[in-house]
Amino acid sequence: MRFNRFLATVLLVVGPWGSDIAWGDPPGLAAVVEGVQGICSDGLSGSIYLDTTDWVPIAAASSGSMPSLVAAARQYGSGRVAILGHDGLVISSSVDTARFMRQLMGWLNVSAGNQARYSSGHAEWIRGTGLQPLAASLQAGGVTLQSLPAPITAEGLRSVSVLIVGNAWSDLSQSEIVAIRDWVWSGGGLLLPGLGWSWEDPSRGRSVENYPMAALAAQFGARWLTTAISGTAVTVSGSAVFDRFYPAVQRVTVESALAWLAGAHSVAGDSLPATLRGDAALVRKFVEAHQLLAAASKSLPSDHPHRQQMAVGLESLFDSAGSFYRRDAARDPSAQSAAAWLRDRAWRSWWDALDYDSATIQRAVQVGAFRADRAQLLVERRVLLLDNSALAPNQVALIESHLDQIPWGLSGLRAISARDSLGTAPDGCTLDGRAYSVNIVSYPIGAVRENQFPAEVPASFADVYSTVLSHELGHIIDASGIDRTPELRAQKQGLIARAGDLQSNYLRSMLSQGFFTQNPQEFFASICNQWFTSGSRTLDVALARLGAGKREPLEQFLFISDVFSAGSDELPLFTANTTGTLTSTPARVQRDDAGRIRRMFARGLDLRIVRDGTGAIVGAERTAGSVADLDLSGLVDFGDVVIVLLKFGPCAGCETDLDGNGMVDFGDVVMVLLEFGEGA
Ligand SMILES: [Zn+2]
Questions:
Q1: How many angstroms separate the CA atoms of 103 and 246, rounded?
Q2: Tell me: the pLDDT tens digits for 255-305?
Q3: C-alpha closest to that of 489 among 520, 513, 468, 531
Q4: Helix (H/G/I), strand (E/B), else coil: 596
Q5: By 3-state DSSP, what share of the chain in percent is helix, strand and coil, each rounded to 5?
């Protein structure tokens, strides 16, 4: 029985988004979900996003992370299109998934033909033998499922009734896309299973902007988000089971989420932080609305109009619901944790929605009543601090000084969170967003200290707030600097491969055997714990290991030195004081013909590396070097005499006062001359 289109136009769907009118659902959708209690992709599903209200959401989860829309369908001309948030749904036999797929394929078969095809030749993940169970069930209904090889043309589609393009990882050509679109318009049925999160990999240049499936789905106004769906109440072998189906699934867009939030805030008024404490259902609705914005701000393409809509809508919400979103005071992390999380969540989504100009950021920090130090971080460094406005001034100042001291590779840093200052997160609420961001701890400076070094060298206790910050910034340097520089990435991978599972092959050897081969993403950040506590002590570890016949730790020390020299012959050597403040001493390096560091010198340090014909380190010598090498040229020479002459005069404690008499004078010139030629 066909659905009455006229009645459908007045069907009012009321749900957690307030009201949303479904203007004319396509006929027959009820048959798609008939008898279906649950579907599962047998994997980590991703969510989909609907650009237009032509789409009808058909499957989502009633629990777990949000947003959870995983299937939707629409009429397009005389044809139909369906989009799925995991290609695994097409081949899964868990719960009622096979039944759902059979019914969906039936619904897509508008022309009631007997020829279904799956595209091939575009690196599709779903093709061939994997489709045999679906092919068999279609065959039972008289429909044949076969391959449609590239290139896809109007001619090739002529006799096809349903086409599956199953998570293509190489581009469809423009003419293929046009052929498919026109074919759907005149009565074809198209199934688009994809998986946004699996494609995304910034280090390989893969983003939502260039997902091959996206160009095709964009023709119909839908796309894949890069958010994954997990934590549902029902699972199959750990995979989410979707249990909410048409017509009970709500249409969720940036616009509907913003509209719901505006309405909910005006009803709740200023007492909302207290109200939320006792109302779990209301918290979930707020989280659901904000997580939809979060997902959209993280993974809609940069030119998507809903980004602009979100930026404007959130700023207006921050204004109209000012008492909830202003950031001038911390909220009690035990009594008002939901309100604390939602506030920072909202600001993160606003921050990620667009790349703002300075005037817009200035305006926003005023609307949000940012505290001065946090406003400065955002305005001047473009770093949003998500800390429930709770970190102490000296903690925020330490972030500033770290960013000052470690400029290298941090330009992509967008946000720093301190989740432990926000209390327990409401279910499903996150603070994550666009790359790159880190999470630190909120321990007061000086409260916790930890030795960063193994037993071979004297202990060096570092403040943990500062060490965690250094470690996390190390992750950013790793992800945005090293991983995106093919040469450095290859070097890093080589270092981990050579060091293998044996912990004594690593500078940071206090972890369990195999830790870095299993967690290679921790390799560089972990060295940073030592590197920022004391570059010199880190070298001590490397040399102690070399003495015990292990070269890899020294290679790792030279690698991080290479990273911080950024191709030049200069780098900073860091030391952290007991309250975590970093200072840096300039060091210089000399390289061999292969570009490897063969010598490093700084005040009080002259390191020389000896390699054999194969390039392997066979020895290293560390001396204090000459204090008279004032220009760090590696040699005491006329340059150093000139420096002393230029600094003539009273000068207590300065490095040119070589004899320490409080004056830079001829005595110091004599000191330089006595060491003339040292360091050659
Ligand atoms: Zn880490």
A1: 13
A2: 999 999 999 999 999 999 999 998 999 999 999 999 999 999 999 999 999
A3: 520
A4: coil
A5: 40, 20, 40
Q: How far is the CA of 87 from the centre of ligand 1 (A)?
A: 32
User: 498: how many CB neighbours lie within 10 A of its CB?
Assistant: 12
Nearest 5°: CA angle at 383, between 377 and 384? 90
Question: What CATH class does 633-680 carry?
Answer: mainly alpha
Tell me: the pLDDT tens digits for 55-84? 999 999 999 999 999 999 999 999 999 999
Dist CA 677 CA 252 (whole Å): 74
Residue 366: other Cβ atoms inside 10 A: 10
The answer to whether 140 and 91 have CB atoms below 8 angstroms apart is no
Please report, for the chain, the start and end positions of each structural domain, with discontinuous segments joined by +: 24-245, 254-428, 450-625, 633-680
Biggest alpha carbon distance in the chain?
Answer: 105
State the residue for tokens 């195999």: 514
Q: What is the pTM of this model?
A: 0.89
CB contact at 8 A, 83 and 267: no
Distance 514 CA to ligand 1 centre (A): 16
Q: Which two tokens stand for residue 445?
A: 């400076």
Question: 239-242 and 235-236: which strand pairing?
Answer: antiparallel
Token code pair at residue 123:
């690196």
Q: Is 373 exposed, middle or buried, given 0-12, 13-18 or 19+ CB atoms closer than 10 A?
A: middle
How remote is the CA of residue 109 from the centroid of ligand 1, in Å? 50
Which positions ≥6 away from 478 have C-beta within 8 Å?
492, 521, 523, 524, 525
Q: Compute, in angstroms, the gap from residue 521 CA to the centroid of ligand 1.
A: 7
Q: Are 347 and 326 in contact (CB under 8 A)?
A: no
Residue with tokens 């250094």: 470
Distance 59 CA to ligand 1 centre (A): 36
Terminal-residue alpha carbon distance, the chain: 93
